[in-house]
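Reading group handout, session on sequence-to-structure problems. Before we discuss, look at one worked example. The prompt was deliberately terse, the way you'd type it at a terminal:

> structure Nephrocystin-3

The input record follows.
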Amino acid sequence: MGTASSLVSPAGGEVIEDTYGAGGGEACEIPVEVKPKARLLRSSFRRGAAAAAAGAGPGSLPRGAGGGGLLGASFKSTGSSVPELEYAAAEYERLKKEYEIFRVSKNQELLSMGRREAKLDTENKRLRAELQALQKTYQKILREKESALEAKYQAMERAATFEHDRDKVKRQFKIFRETKENEIQDLLRAKRELESKLQRLQAQGIQVFDPGESDSDDNCTDVTAAGTQCEYWTGGALGSEPSIGSMIQLQQSFRGPEFAHSSIDVEGPFANVNRDDWDVAVASLLQVTPLFSHSLWSNTVRCYLIYTDETQPEVDLFLKDYSPKLKRMCETMGYFFHAIYFPIDLENQYLAVRKWEIEKSSLVILFIHLTLPSLLLEDCEEAFLKNPEGKPRLIYHRLEDGKVSSNSIQQLIDQVSNLNKTNKAKIIDHSGDPTEGVYKIYIYVEKIIKQDILGFENTDMETKDLGSEDSIPEEDDFGDVLWDIHDEQEQMETFQQASNSAHELGFDKYYQRLNDLVAAPAPIPPLLVSGGPGSGKSLLLSKWIQLQQKNSPNTLILSHFVGRPMSTSSEPSLIIKRLTLKLMQHSWSVSALTLDPAKLLEEFPRWLEKLSARHQGSIIIIIDSIDQVQQVEKHMKWLIDPLPVNVRVIVSVNVETCPPAWRLWPTLHLDPLNPKDAKSIIIAECRSMDIKLSKEQVSEKKLERHCRSATTCNALYVTLFGKVMARAGRAGNLDKILHQCFQCQDTISLYRLALRSIQESLANDMDKELMKQILCLINVSHNGVSESELMELYPELSWAVLTSLIHSLHKMCLLTYGCGLLKFQHLQAWETVRLEYMEDPTIISSYRQKLINYFTMQLSRDRVTWRSTDELPWLFQQQGSKQKLHDCLLNLFVSQNLYKRGHFADLLSYWQFVGKDKSAMAAEYFDSLKQHEKNWEGEENMICLADLYETLGRFLRDLGLLSQAVVPLQRSLEIRETALDPDHPRVAQSLHQLASVYVQWKKFGNAEQLYKQALEIAENAYGAEHPHIARELEALATLYQKQNKYEQAEHFRKKSFKIRQKATRRKGNSYGFALLRRRALQLEELTLGKDTPDNARTLNELGVLYYLQNNLETADQFLKRSLEMRERVLGPDHPDCAQSLNNLAALCNEKKQYDKAEELYERALDIRRRALAPDHPSLAYTVKHLAILYKKMISLLFFRGNLTKLYLCMS
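And the output record:
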């Protein structure tokens, strides 16, 4: 039997059934909480009642009648009495009442709790409704905020658009105003000329001086018979006597500007330039590149070795011990070095290739002892006796006691010795140890490379490490401008190669259209030169540039030739940066140039407008194959903006890839060649190789049937067709190849035929495989592969095999040289190699991996060159190797090299490919530098570390991360102050860079303090008139101008200008001098041949160049040589002799040798009077400067009191 608790339901009071007894019991409701006593009583009552019910039969009394007896009997049986029963009943009633009270109270509590729960539910619903309302309000406010921000950005965009439109309208108005002002000036000038001519006609008996021949178009002086002077001005006549300054004002003649104090008379690229305006000389000199041979502008030092069996040990020693040293020296200066040699060719199988190598070589060394084989005589004659360009040559002659050299050697040495003194051949006679002789050769070769080939002034310059104290940072000569000389050399070589074709291809009709564009009134949109692939667009533009440089020397031409897609030359930001730097160079500016591509697009039109305002002639911008540039419409949007009145733009595009928006521009379309022209080109190409084609082989009908489509009539196809025919004629299989050529219906199929013919001509399968691999490596590279890199990649490759292969591929228009690298001549050649050898993507990946392994090995040897930084990151990007690219970029020297060469956009694109933003990139660079700082020790390493910190700071500044840029720049400053000296010039450099960050940050007080410290250090280190001082003064002037302190800014700017002006007279323009000096040396080399009018002209130009550098003695030598050569070649009465006389007189005038100058001027005047028309400008030019000379002499004699000579001079 259980307890009462077992009968209680957990849910509260429940009705349960008592199961005691067989007959069952009465169901009752048991409360949740009861007292034990009451439970026991009630249980006893229930048991008693159950027993009574069980003992009663069917006739028993009702419960009410007999219940008491039963109950009493029950109690009696237990010994209980009536009072106890009554007490129990009373107790029962009491408990029952308590129970009722308890039940009622609990029910009330339950009701109260129910009401409270309902109230809480209502409150909860209300709060939930309020929460939902608040959420809706929040979402509404958030949307309103986003709308407000979007409206703000739209307003900012509209404001920027408005600013751009306003600037555009201002430029349009300026162009319109300049056009109208020029027209008004032309009308006023014409009016004055007519008035003066009318007055001369009316003045009878009066000797007049033609105003058109006076010193200024705005200050025209008429000299009357009585000696009085009258000046005609637009505002009336002034009676005062003109000063010497007014007599030498700027004047505009048909030959271009004659600047103040300009007494040098020169025609051609140097027309009337002045020492005070060096930028014009730079502009002119930069446009004479067609005069130079390829070897003078190559980025490779090619040393060609000729030797015999007797001198084989010397050659082996030179190649083993000294060739690597020369290679490292050239690599340090950014050049390749190749020591090229052929085995002793008994069968002369490499004869044509050897001749080609001698023509390309920068230096030829001949090693001889006692005999000279006859098979080498032709090479020696080509290298030493012909040598039309006067390249350096060296002969090593080993002597031996008791033995005499052969007659052939003696004859060669005598012939070389009898050449003129200007020949570069040097003979080294050596007797003794061959090791000492080879060392002598090394010393001479090193000197020749530095002085004669590379044009360095200091021949004792030693190769310096990157972090050495004395190594000058590359950008020091250029201020804050980052310049890549390799890009410039590549463009020069591309221009020369594009213009080397001997076939004009009927371009005369196109030249006139281009000339009409230049002469057309502004404003006009760019001219579109369109044509199919290989139609000759590059050739047309390059030929026309040459004509413009010859016929219009005052026209400034800025050109850019775009190579294949994905190459450096097709990078839009580098194109804009290069053109902007050219504009800055011609503007004689040293301003810092932003590297941000978006800001470059804004800077370029401003520099163009600035230069156009001061340039006296036209400015022509030419971009070839502009459609190869990625996102060309986005990056070249300046083309659709209005240009200054004297600026013209010409771009060439492929018809198929021309942007649709540009098709509305004026277009010059290159038509396909007609069959007659195609046939003449093919026959001319074959004749150049001594191949004659019979009428049966090439008939007009066959060509007409073949040349029906545009693809078989374009210039490249026809040229390649002729070269394939000429090669087949030499090989003796002309008919077979001709039949195959007629089956080629486009340029690529013809290229594939040429490729297969070259491969079939190779001697063995190894050479064929090498040819395939070399072409594939060049194809997958970024900018090409050098010959030295190929020699290291394939150690089994010999120079004879490599140069023979390159010679064959070059002759068939497949490969060419660019900046010392092997590249494809045309895009179609690149596509041909892809189709022929690399259709499987895995093949492309394998060749890329081969280049990656090679350049990675170079980096592991600490050889961080411009080649490894150009190729390796790009190859990682093409392979999709993000982690390897990331590790490569964290090589600080790789990033430093890319940044210092101005490849800012490439560096950013690499980091974007890795997936890092600017801040993450900056943090990783800084952490890497910190790690390097822990591992590096020693002064030299610390200086190198300071350079890396400075580069990082400048890079972050250009990215706009000014707060992060301060930390590495400050660290660079601390290291340099500790490792060098607080007053070292490099400390001034750090102060300057740190100040530039504060200027951008608008913390002008800090920047001013740092600039002044840098100025003080620079003055103590360099002196008060060094260009570095001008740089700091210019920075201070800019700083004060930003603070609206215009008086202080003008003061510092004037001081800076005076310093730069003096430095320019001594050295030349800071941007162009190193390059110009090298070109001057090369011009000098070009004059070492025979006496010709062109060489005399070049000597005259050299004299002008040295005059502009204030090197009057050297200028005098060249001008005298020019005069002597012209008198010998042209005769003493030729007008060109008058030009040289005029220039010599100007030099004497500069030296204050007035008597000698007077004699020379009079000789020049006498020649020009007899040879030229009375109204010729050159005659007036000489009269003008003679008059200026007389006025100087009169003033000088009057000052000295020499009245007798004064009277004679005035008479």
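Points for discussion. First: Residues 82-202 form the longest helix (121 residues). Second: The chain has a mean pLDDT of 76.
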